Known about the structure:
Two copies of one chain form a homodimer.
Chain A: E1 4-9, H1 13-24, H2 26-33, E2 37-43, H3 47-54, E3 59-61, H4 64-68, E4 75-78, H5 85-95, E5 99-102, H6 105-122, E6 126-127, H7 138-145, E7 151-157, H8 160-172, H9 176-186, H10 194-197, H11 200-214, E8 224-225, H12 233-241, E9 244-255, E10 258-269, E11 281-288, E12 292-299, H13 303-320, E13 351-361, H14 366-376, E14 381-387, E15 395-402, E16 405-406, H15 407-418, E17 428-432
Parallel strand pairs in A: 1-2, 1-4, 2-3, 4-5, 5-6, 8-10, 10-17
Antiparallel strand pairs in A: 7-9, 7-11, 9-10, 11-12, 13-15, 13-16, 13-17, 14-15
EC number (chains A, B): 1.1.1.3
Protein name (chains A, B): Homoserine dehydrogenase
Cofactor (chains A, B): a metal cation
Amino acid sequence: MKAMNVGLLGIGTVGGGTFSVLKRNSEEITRRAGRPIEITVVADKNLELARKVTGGACRLTDDAFSVVTDPDVDIVIELIGGYGIARELVLKAIENGKHVVTANKALLAKHGNEIFDAAQKKGVMVAFEAAVAGGIPIIKALREGLTANRIEWIAGIINGTTNFILTEMREKGLPFDVVLKEAQRLGYAEADPTFDVEGIDAAHKLSIMSAIAFGNRVSFDQASVEGITKLEAVDIKYAEQLGYRIKLLGITKRMPEGVELRVHPTLIPSKRLIANVEGAMNAVLAKGDAVGATLYYGKGAGAEPTASAVIADLVDVTRMHTSDPENRVPHLAFQPDAVVDLPILPLAEVVTSYYLRLRVEDKPGVLADITRILADHQISIDAMFQREPAEGEDQADIIMLTHQTKEKNIDAAIASINALSVVTGKTIRLRMESLL
Amino acid sequence: MKAMNVGLLGIGTVGGGTFSVLKRNSEEITRRAGRPIEITVVADKNLELARKVTGGACRLTDDAFSVVTDPDVDIVIELIGGYGIARELVLKAIENGKHVVTANKALLAKHGNEIFDAAQKKGVMVAFEAAVAGGIPIIKALREGLTANRIEWIAGIINGTTNFILTEMREKGLPFDVVLKEAQRLGYAEADPTFDVEGIDAAHKLSIMSAIAFGNRVSFDQASVEGITKLEAVDIKYAEQLGYRIKLLGITKRMPEGVELRVHPTLIPSKRLIANVEGAMNAVLAKGDAVGATLYYGKGAGAEPTASAVIADLVDVTRMHTSDPENRVPHLAFQPDAVVDLPILPLAEVVTSYYLRLRVEDKPGVLADITRILADHQISIDAMFQREPAEGEDQADIIMLTHQTKEKNIDAAIASINALSVVTGKTIRLRMESLL
């Protein structure tokens, strides 16, 4: 059967991985897809690199726009990244009737609605398995595997850099700054780590998963995002003593009033499987009303794991390109006319339980003052312990776990607590999830 | 759009779950599938039960053959089980141009090749997500999510009954018989638990996964199967002391000489995520050459988790039924003309490492005799410890972990060891896997 012709935009890490996996496994992939899938043209500004990676096996150009308008190209793989030129190229490819495969989470988080609308109108597919959790087929699982379910929530470790850092902080008891430098040295973190450590990359991925889980428009701009830069090793240690691990989770929940969409460090029970996902690995836990909790685990980044997802999309597109567009898997899992615009809840309205660490003077009545304030805000305490001052100190740490409450209640209570003269440091507040 | 009409055969646990989930989530499922999916007729010998479960919402019959020949039925769900009448009904449905969705692992393990051939000839789909690991979308992950990969091996906890029993044996230190009775009392094991505890159910599921992973014919009849009935609590304890857990794993590996296809209790490192899958939960670990190891976890049985998979298949069939058969996902993941007949390796040829427990007289020279025999068979020792005899006893336990060797070597060595006069009990041998 006639080969599918693919134009590849960007021959960096993932592009190189895609090229080499597609070549190495071409026989097996053809046996699955029913026809060869061939990269016939590669566009990259760095033609020398492109020549080195491809070994002259296909046409090269430094003009990506010539690829997205090339009548001989069936599918365009966009691996340029960012949301400037990538957006233009993807829209131009769609306009020219090309199917698109992309790993670009930032682009879809920012411009997904526009891109999916354009693809829908043109009757082409935009596939994006590689945009979330690398090689883990999580988009397929959510969009096709759990179609029977009313999905209730998703919680994911979807950024390998931060999970690596948190694992090292816990295992070695080291502060964030030290571990970040180590991660940079080992190549787990970039020179400018902002996107990863501030939770933005996780929020990009989360907002895509949230949309396909709930049949909602992509709502990245309304996500609440908090990274791990302010997290202290001492809280990781206290959490562990209480039977919890701290993970940077992307959490999205369907509530009666709207959708929660938030990324932040989170205490989760150590005995949960996802709490034991360590190092740079990713995992997504999805709860459906029929299936219960399911978990998907694997490598969330890297050349070949990401290439695995890119190529799975190529095979899917190859299989579906002749079917009528109405019967294809919809971009956002729900039919375009059934996608709704559920409100995203502000953090103040989120209901969860909390970990508090208070630094107080070690004298009588302190605990009574604090628990009185919590009671006044309808916050009840689930567990508590006090770390007595060391020899020569006169300040103690009080660690509390609360039952569920609205975030605005806990914040009001903390403001009152911080105003007490016996409270000598800023109270640390972390969110907790039971993930049941 | 016109509804898809579904005929349901068997309204037991999973049938009832399918009926109620499809009803409860019909709005959300329609928003995904693009058209309603309706169970229009139910066949069951027990008409009273059928009436109670369906509440008169659809036509009932006690003649399943009338459903598979009904011109108004688009899709038949087979939930009768077994491979007698179920095989006849599925083949008759295919003959009549119906698509089939089934949860029947025994049927597909025994007659999958015949059934898929018939479906292929007729241009209809036989979908079977529910046949393996209940609600976990593992068939979809293997067949569509990992298409870029040369899959190297799969290892799965794919029987909830035995995983529940092993978890209880480890946590409570109880023997198999006692825990089995408890599992039966709690409904985790059937009155006749043979299929589960002897590993046959796991082998059914494994042989289906093996076929779609490697593009091989379904080869259940050549699987090597060993259950957990002879497993002793003391070995679970020793394994734990050495940093391992014992799980009943279904393992299939692609080797240069053929395919390993085996179910048996297996020591795996406690720190692996899959070692921490407890109770009746299922998990499948799949290793691809590009993606690395990925894990899929969830409920492997029960009314609604299994219904989740059945309905996901209904949605898939609804989406794909208008597409040309050549472009659908092939039944066995590979195109029919690309499915091969790789040899299944006998256990004697399997290469793995081993846990040995020897009962010996506590006197000088014993260890020298044993290690000499192992060395003569080219088996090297990775770790060893000796449990000294208790007060008043004169026999000691020696526990050894070996490096990798062929099973026929270890068996020959054990025969020689058992012949030593200082060895007073039958040597226990368990297989180990590093799962890396």
